[in-house]
Amino acid sequence: MVETMRAQRFYAETKSIALEDVPIPDPGPGEVLVKVAFCGICHSDLSLINGTFPAQRPVVTQGHEASGTVAKLGPGVTGWSEGDRVVVAAGRPCLQCVNCGHGDSANCLRIQLMAFAYDGAWAEYTVALAAGLTRVPDDVPLEQAAILADAVSTPFGAVVHTGKVAVGESVGVWGVGGVGTHIVQLARLVGAVPIVAVDINPAVRQRALEIGADFAFDSRDDDLHGKLAEVTGGRKLDVAFDAVGIRATFEQALDSLTVGGRLVAVGMSSEAPSVGPTSMFGLSQRQVLGHLGYRNSDIEILATLVSRGRLDLTRSISQIIPLEKIHDGISDLENGAGNPIRILVQP
């Protein structure tokens, strides 16, 4: 008889999820089977359920922020052993596009996203490419390791690779939830100053100050631009991060930049913002940069920062729920109950 596991399956036709018993997958060549310890619930998971993101498969297991232990090695896998503590990469290259053919799989043109193009980790086990695994130091808790796979690594990529934040640059962060919180922490880690958190929720603004922001303002404040100018010596912001992705936050962040400033768009929605008249956009020399994901090597860097005590993620785990109660976790994230940074599933 085929061994089974529990998994939360998303059905695209009805936009619903259901807990089911499904066969435990067998790793193929170059793959490993990972016993899932924890997996995050992300806003992109909600976007698939509510239809904001189009489904790529009629039925799929969701969840793309996973940590666990190696349970079985596929054919040809070396360098890993059963029991190794790992983080699973949230995507894999297609290996067929022009860039992959040139050996540039990091810039794959048709990247396959975990929990969208193939089964994810809201389950007891998941299959991953061995080349996409990151080893977790023994002193890093697996619940913190799980969120390195997106909630922390995507902000890291946004700050370091896309935004290229330099020491002494002023930074603003619109939306200080699961992604914005870590943008604030990482911007501080690389030496940005001042760091300004912008959010409508006073409790979230207070939390932002506690984890590294120098100032926290309400996005609805009529004098927001005046306050930003005041705390930056009249220059306004060198780099603004929109972690929300709606028209209002995008346009407000863009308008808060200094001459030659960069807006890094991290949050996503179906809304269509404007950059204003092309004449003014050109004269201001502002840049708008879209950001998605991270490099697998970023996870290793982040794991080392956590292990060495340079990056504190102890406040990032807002709640841990069993697989059976994932509907509650989805609802809490959607409604912002308790202002969560990250809610985890423990299969």
Amount of helix: 25-40%
Q: How large is the radius of gyration?
A: 20 Å
Strand residues, percent: 25-35%
Mean pLDDT: 94
By helix and strand content, what is the structural category? alpha/beta
Number of strands: 18
Backbone shape: globular
Low-confidence stretches: none
Number of helices: 10
Biggest beta-sheet profile: 7 strands, mixed
Tell me the span between the first and last alpha carbons.
Answer: 22 Å
H and E order: EEEHEEEEHEEEHEHEHEHEHEHEHEHE
Commentary on this structure:
- The protein has helices at residues 43-50, 98-101, 142-162, 180-189, 202-211, 224-231, 247-254, 278-284, 296-307, 326-335; strands at 4-11, 16-23, 31-41, 59-61, 66-73, 85-88, 91-92, 112-113, 125-129, 133-135, 171-174, 195-198, 215-217, 237-242, 257-265, 287-290, 317-322, 342-346.
- 28% of the residues lie in helices and 27% in strands.
- The two termini are 22 Å apart.
- Strand 15 (257-265), helix 8 and strand 16 form a beta-alpha-beta unit.
- Strands 3, 5, 6, 9, 10, 17 and 18 form a seven-stranded mixed beta sheet that branches. It has a six-stranded parallel beta sheet with strand order 13-12-11-14-15-16, with helices on both faces.
- By secondary structure, it is of the alpha/beta class.
- It has ten helices and 18 strands.
- The model has no long low-confidence stretch (mean pLDDT 94).
- Helix 3 crosses helix 9.
